[in-house]
Amino acid sequence: xxxxxxxxxxxxxxxxxxxxxxxxxxxxxxxxxxxxxxxxxxxxxxxxxxxxxxxxxxxxxxxxxxxxxxxxxxxxxxxxxxxxxxxxxxxxxxxxxxxxxxxxxxxxxxxxxxxxxxxxxxxxxxxxxxxxxxxxxxxxxxxxxxxxxxxxxxxxxxxxxxxxxx
Length: 166
What we know:
Number of helices: 10
Strand content: under 5%
Order of helices and strands: HHHHHHHHHH
Largest sheet: none
């Protein structure tokens, strides 16, 4: 892994303090032009964090972070706004935790799970949300989440305890 430049290090500091989604999207675009994967990833992850739906550290926040992340990825790929309408509607009817439980307990993975795995973001799947919030989800849901992630070749222990610098 190459060492970050002075400009990249400064960008990372600025990204961490930025709450403006448009500014973060500009960082992403600039990082792509400059081939800076570290800056692009940091700006993308920060973009996923800065939404008004819930308080950081809550199940609700993690769920909305996952939704915003996938919508942003699809927006970037398709060049137009994409909304996960069915997921948003189910959350509106049943709440975040029940939606996550229901999707995790389904026999087949959701399209969102597959999309996030394929794009290299297993930490943003609803299954990862389940494992980060064991007090909210029962053992059956936790077991299903762990199994699904393992079947997708995700190292669950590493996912829950990331090594600093990765």
